[in-house]
Amino acid sequence: MKRLINISxxxxxxxxxxxxxxxxxxxxxxPEQQPVSVIEQPVEKPQPYAExxxxxxxxxxxxxxxxxGDMIVALYxxxxxxxxxxxxxxxxxxxxxxxFHRCINHFMIQGGDPQSRGASPSAMLGNGGPGYTxxxxxxxxxxxxRGALCAARQGDQxxxxxxxxxxxxxxxxxxxxxxxxxSQIETNIxxxxxxxxxxxxxxxxxxxxxxxxxLDMNYSVYGEVILGLNVIDSIASLRGNQANRPLSDxxxxxxxxxxxxx
Length: 262
Known about the structure:
By secondary structure, this protein is of the alpha+beta class. Helices cover about 25% and strands about 20% of the residues. The protein has helices at about 1-25, 50-55, 80-90, 180-190, 200-210, 230-235; strands at about 60-65, 70-75, 100-105, 110, 135, 150, 165, 170, 220-225, 255-260. Strand 3 (about 100-105) and strand 4 form a beta hairpin.
């Protein structure tokens, strides 16, 4: 009985409270709303090529774009003639629309012939240029490791000074080398450059990432791919005709992304 009384009393109190509140329809005064001033913080947009600019920061850089991806190349200061010529042509859009016209798997991909722009499938390519050559720049620190950017040139018979094509270049894919093979290359180079020796670091590069050591001190190396090495593999592996021109055209375009160098 006591429990029932307690519940009844509770109910009566609740009803009185509800009735009292129900009779009062006026809403409590609300504080006057003021418009909130929102200060938008500027969103920091990622800098284009930020990752590339951190690699070898003192070197000029150029993006080579293809349908298989982009390659970022850094240009060596030890080869200023080739560096400045490449930057000039790239900034003038000389290379835009040209082909990688000669691609050999486990060796290299070559482009830069102005006659390749819009060339028919049967066109013979590889002899075009801007009308000048670039003096050879050989440096013992610059080797044909995988990703090396190098200057194409005519053969020794017509080009004894080994001057480079004004525009044609190749990018090394290459293969792995053994100590014995590198020792033989040193001997071959030493016949014209007495005392030439690979450093231990250079040997390690050839044994681990590969390259085309047989071309060292014979063709000018003036840069390297720092991003997009996989693009070399994609292009080099394409099926080609008897002249090693890919059956599906590989068109390039270039953009200078860092012209300053120290």
